[in-house]
Specification:
It is a single chain. The chain is of the alpha+beta class. It has two domains: 5-81, no CATH class; 89-181, Winged helix-like DNA-binding domain superfamily/Winged helix DNA-binding domain (Arc Repressor Mutant, subunit A, Orthogonal Bundle). It has helices at residues 20-25, 32-39, 80-88, 93-106, 112-120, 129-141, 173-181; strands at residues 5-6, 13-14, 53-56, 63-66, 110-111, 145-149, 160-164. A hairpin with a 6-residue loop joins strand 1 (5-6) and strand 2. The termini are far apart. The relative contact order is 0.13. The structure holds zinc ion (2 copies). One zinc ion binds at residues 7, 9-10, 12, 29-31, 34.
Length: 186
């Protein structure tokens, strides 16, 4: 018998491979909503409903209300406009954004293989470890991502790990992606 983890807030079963958001950003919780609910030690409304939670947009930093509904419980931007700005600033910009978001959420060194596993789950993003390393090079060069190599032993390949620089932990990553990836016009 296999037992799945249950969300620590709402007790919903977290089934690996289907709960992509959970796997990438909110281990132990089924959604961003449930993670914040627990972190902020909130309680149900007097009528027994889920309260809305104030969140900061990951692009414009405006506050918005996060609701525990199927389509909104993982919302990171205040609205479609901010989402579209990030999505459209460059082709595949959401891959960069998602990578940075994973690193911010995990707060630990991740190898390109770890990141590929999370990103390629259900083929949401078609990525390979080489492609991930390649993409991250830009962010390493800018100091947004820090790399580490485990010492090379004779029989092992070097493993490079990636971690978000603490300086950027509280930065709106959407805005950072737009600023960095938008092609410069003269
Ligand atoms: Zn939950
Ligand atoms: Zn916004």
């Amino acid at each position: 018998m296999t037992t799945h983890n249950k969300c620590k807030t709402c007790s919903k079963e977290i089934i690996p491979n289907t709960e992509r958001q959970s796997l990438m950003f909110t281990p132990h919780y089924c959604s961003k909503y449930c993670k914040l609910f627990s972190e902020q030690k909130l309680s149900l409304t007097p009528k027994g409903g889920w309260p809305t939670i104030s969140c900061k947009c990951d692009n414009c930093e405006k506050e918005f209300q996060l609701k525990n509904k199927r389509n909104t419980k993982d919302q990171v931007f205040c609205g479609k406009e901010c989402l579209h700005q990030v999505m459209k600033c460059k082709k595949h910009s959401m891959k960069d954004y998602t990578l940075l978001r994973i690193l911010r959420a995990k707060r630990k060194p991740m190898s390109a293989y770890d990141l590929t596993y999370l990103m390629d789950n259900q083929h949401q993003y078609r990525v390979k470890p080489n492609g991930i390393s390649c993409k991250l090079r830009r962010w390493v060069a800018k100091g947004v991502v820090i790399t580490n190599r485990t010492p090379k032993t004779r029989n092992e390949n070097t493993i490079t790990t990636y971690q978000l620089s603490p300086e950027y932990e509280n930065e709106p990553l959407g805005a950072l992606v737009i600023k960095t990836l938008t092609p410069k016009t003269n």
